[in-house]
Amino acid sequence: MASVCLGPFSDEPPGRNSCSLRAHVHRSGLEVSLAKNVLPTGRSSPFAGVRQTNSNPSSGAVYSPGLTINNIKQVINETIETNILRKPAPTRLRELIRQIRACRTAAEERAVVNTECAYIRSTFRETDCIWKCRNMAKLLYIHMLGYPAHFGQVECLKLAASSKYTDKRIGYLGAMLLLDERTDVHVLLTNCLKNDLNSSTQFVVGTALCTLAAIASPEMARDLCNDVERLIVSTNAFLRKKAILCAFRFVRRVPELMEDYLPKCEVFLADKNHGILIATITLITEMCEQSLPVLRYFKSIIPTLVRMLKSLTVTGYSPEHLVSGVSDPFLQVKILRLLRVLGHGDSTQSEIMNDVLAQVATSTETSKNAGNAILYETVLTIMNVESENSLRVLAVNILGRFLLNNDKNIRFIGLLTLVKTVHKDMTAVQRHRITILECLSDGDPSIQRCAMELSFTLINTQNIEMVVRELLRYLESTDAEMKALCSSKIVLAAETYSPSIRWHLDVLLKILTIAGNNIRDDVISSTIQLISNSPQHEQRFITDKMWEAIMNMNQLENRQPLVQVAVWTIGEYGESGGFDEFELIEHYRQLLWAPQLSITTKQYILVSLAKISVRIDGCTPEIQNIINSFRVHMNIDLQQRANEFSQLFTNYKHLRNSLLEKMPKLKLTELTTSEYNADFASPESTEVEEQQEDPEAEQEPSNQDILLDLLGDCFSSDGNGNNALAVVPVSQPAAATTQPYYPTPTTSFNQAGLSSYNNNVPMAGTTDSIMDLLGLAAAAAGTAPTAPNQTHQTIAYATSGTAASIPSIDVYHKDDIFIRFFIHPTVDEQQPSSTASARITVQTTNGSQATIEKFLFQAAVPKSFVLTLREPSSTVMPPGGTIMQDLLIARQTSPSHAGPGLRMKVRFSYEVENYSMMEQIDVNDFPSGFLR
Asked: For residue 717, what pLDDT is reported?
């Protein structure tokens, strides 16, 4: 009997093994069985006229086998055409990957991806689509390429909730890639994960554990911690390993959950399954890094870990985990990391692991990457625990062997590790200095950079010349970014370990020549500072060198920092150079009109040219002509400089020599000495350098006269030409030579007037710079010693009117701010009349309804007087509040040369309702006989 059976279609896509149509043809008879939904709607069965017979040949049944088979073929073709071919199958993942890789431009790739994403979106809207898994797989690939795939998040949840494992697997994979804690959809996965964690199929449970370990949030960890804890003690090693790794994620996100896993971890360390051991050691390492009590709790397992590592190294008890001849390198790496955490800072525990670390370092095979990975972890462990010196030397030697490896990755790892651990044993690293310097010529930029950083850490006074020579050679071939970094570091290293000034100057000149425009501003300033502080013969040497460096006009546009330093040097020390002045002026003319030079460089040149006019005789007319030609320059700055310098050649000839004299020695800035050199100098040497002071620097004249006009209308000159201001900082009151100035507790305004303070206070002389009034605290030479800050006693006024006998001056009355001076002569009869002194009490009152904050009072007097400001009673004035502050004034000159009386410039600033205010006034109406 022949029979044909057509089974129902499955929801799998067509293709290889995707259709469940089954046809069984038996020669003895015919039997057709069709599902109701297989036949096309509205059509009668093509087998209606076929009589079904049994297999008995004696029944006399007549049939046509050829006609029956044709009818069967017709049914199959019509069914496929109706249910499948009318909905074209989507592109397979392999085809999509092939199409994307075939794209030649980014635009073509975007077109392919956008077309496919549009199709995937349309299929997501269908409820009975049979291609969900294929479309989600393609979407995840598109996501990994960097294109947006957020529209597939909800579809991932639907697939994860499916009862079919194939759908669930792709759904969880999509959830791990597309979901995170920042998305609200993430929470909807909790119930699905809880159901799957209780599934009877281990693969479903394992997939759920993997997803939970990848994307678990703190809320999800708290909700599912009980299920994971139940699976940790499962007898199934497959599930237990995944549950421990899931607990690792929980501990990282919610540290308070680690208490539930502490006793179980000790038990799991006795397990023979390597997967469970690796997962357990990973969990213990995380808990020890997060909690110090847990770290102390697990110090007792160090002997167990040492015994385990020794078994892996010596006996190799697990041949099934052998990788390139190394017994389970993954487990060894995990053990070494945990030992590094447990032994850090503990010499007792470190001593237990010293032997096994030495054994691992000497017996591990280095010809394969697996052995190099173990050696790398061994080196890190040796350097981070309290190991012996011989063991540290062994670790550094292992890193030295890494530098000789042909694999660039291993060389990079060796250099990077040496950079991190060089401070542990500098002597051992110095033995590999030649190998490290050879890495500067490596073709890999990453290796070059690591070698450069490591080279700077090795510099000392003995090897600086050799190391800097190699670094300068590296500087010639590196890119622009590294030139800027390397040149700055060479400058700082030379400042710290320079053997001589000439060598230092020569190195700076080479840096300016090699690095060109790719240097930082600190190199220019450091070079100028060094030249300024050099002896005269060294200044002569560097001036000639600078002139030779800029003689050739070629490539100067690429070395403009060199031009700037060179013209500054020639302008300052041009008289010591051995060059022809007319050739010099002509070269300056070419530089000034060179279109490729920047405006900043031309500013340097123009100033240098003006200074040369007072350094070299006989070339003043040519210089004047060049400067005059820039009076109509398009650049405003150059135009202004030229006009000002031109005035020095005409109307103010008598001032040119004094204004264009040599700059004083430039001190190294605090930033350079304390911050930059901290990378090279030890703390002890830095403190010694800070304590050393240049005795000649104190003899340098003050520049305060140049700044007289900063406050606007300056005082007119007195009989002695003392037209400067003596400005006193608020925060540093002058000290008494015999007795400090402290107010007594009884100081107050009473009916007899304001009682004086201690009058036995000689007024110390000071000539503070005007920069103090601007808040820059630039004290001039000869400043009197200062005393510690004293606490001011608030002066109370009596209600009676007798206090009016004290002379007072209304200084300011505006914007509800009232300032009044109360004048108290305190001349000491025992003092000479040349040091007559007085005290002024400044009363500032807030008449507004707002609180005044950050009130600051400053004052300035002519040089014939010395002014000292005491600390104010407060810096905050509430509505109706008052601030009291004392001014101590003394005359320095004798009465015969007293000149005009006291005049004062007053500046005060404050903040009110987040607005900053500042006022400046002149006080000239002091009593006629005051301080005369």
From this structure: 39
